């Protein structure tokens, strides 16, 4: 999935909430989004999920997507299981399969006893469990989570952590926002921050998986060509003098170097260095 020059504003002539967003979301990746309240991060997640349409730019190759909003609309004429069965059918499951999946996820989150409770009568914590179950029951190719852990008890947060890792391991993409900087630390492949409506690719806590990491400094070819799309390992990016600094898990570093050096036109790799002990640091490359 790719966002190209995406912007969003509400109302004709209204202020821009987001502008100039370029983002690749490869399959099998976990991306963390951070930003202050009002920065535009929830709007970005709604664009990723297809809830909102961009005011400018394009979003292409969106897979089948599930979205868990920050606030679950509980005033709906369904029971908990009825809602999950309905949403499972929307996501392409048959009625029986949707009901079975919905019941299974309610049990996993310790909410099986509320299957026949009407949504409007659920507590906030149980409502949030229903909202999260809704996002997981159809095994989506893209899962978008906006503060989905808020309101969950400790055991349910662990269940959601594990479910996110399982979706990524199965080849899906997950994009999430959470107020806890420790959330899924060491599991995310990249982190981004939304600042004043712009997406900044600077590393954030948990932005690169734990373990050996490689930092690559590269200079753009003449003409200021942008970085190639879909870089291996979805590296964290930050500005460097005359170029960019890319941080990636060591397992992706060779593929990332090849992508930079074989781009048309090629990028000039100025230095490659290990960021973790135990890996031999390489001399700057010409």
Question: What is the topology?
Answer:
Layout: E1 2-9, E2 16-24, E3 30-35, H1 41-49, E4 56-60, E5 65-68, H2 80-90, H3 95-108, H4 124-136, E6 142-146, H5 154-169, E7 173-177, E8 190-195, E9 198-200, E10 213-219, E11 236-240, E12 243-249, H6 253-261, E13 268-274
Parallel strand pairs: 3-7, 3-8, 5-6, 6-7
Antiparallel strand pairs: 1-2, 1-4, 8-9, 10-12, 10-13, 11-12
Helix pairs in contact: 2-3, 2-4
Tell me the strand order in the biggest sheet.
5-6-7-3-8-9
The helix-strand sequence is EEEHEEHHHEHEEEEEEHE
Whole-angstrom Rg:
20 Å
Distance between the termini: 34 Å
Annotation field: number of helices = 6
Strand elements, count? 13
Biggest sheet character: 6 strands, mixed
Helix content: 25-40%
Shape: elongated
Q: Which structural class matches the secondary elements?
A: alpha/beta
- Contiguous uncertain segments of 5+ residues: 202-210, 276-286
Mean pLDDT across all residues, rounded?
85
- How much of the residues is beta strand, in percent? 25-35%
């Amino acid at each position: 999935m790719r966002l190209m020059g995406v912007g969003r504003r509400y109302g004709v002539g209204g202020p821009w909430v987001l502008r100039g967003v370029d983002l690749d979301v490869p399959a099998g990746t976990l991306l963390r989004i951070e930003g202050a309240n009002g920065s535009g991060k929830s709007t970005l997640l709604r664009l990723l999920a297809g809830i909102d349409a961009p005011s400018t730019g394009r979003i292409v190759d969106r897979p089948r997507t599930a979205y868990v909003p920050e606030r679950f609309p509980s005033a709906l004429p369904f029971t908990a299981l009825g809602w999950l069965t309905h949403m499972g059918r929307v996501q392409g499951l048959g009625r029986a399969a949707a009901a079975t999946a919905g019941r299974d996820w309610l049990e996993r989150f310790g909410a099986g006893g509320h299957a026949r409770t009407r949504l409007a009568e659920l507590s906030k914590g149980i409502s949030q469990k229903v909202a999260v179950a809704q996002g997981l029951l159809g095994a989506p190719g893209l899962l978008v989570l906006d503060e989905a852990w808020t309101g969950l008890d400790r055991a349910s947060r662990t269940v959601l952590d594990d479910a996110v890792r399982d979706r990524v391991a199965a080849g899906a993409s997950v994009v999430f926002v959470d107020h806890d900087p420790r959330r899924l630390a060491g599991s995310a492949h990249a982190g981004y921050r939304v600042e004043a409506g712009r997406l900044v690719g600077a590393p954030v806590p948990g932005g690169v998986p734990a373990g050996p990491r490689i930092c690559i400094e590269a200079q753009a070819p003449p003409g200021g060509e942008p970085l190639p799309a879909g870089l291996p390992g979805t590296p964290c990016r930050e500005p460097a003098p005359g170029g960019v600094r890319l941080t990636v898990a060591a397992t992706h570093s060779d593929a990332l170097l090849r992508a930079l050096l074989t781009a048309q036109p090629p990028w000039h790799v100025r230095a490659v260095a290990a960021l973790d002990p135990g890996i031999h640091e390489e001399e700057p490359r010409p």
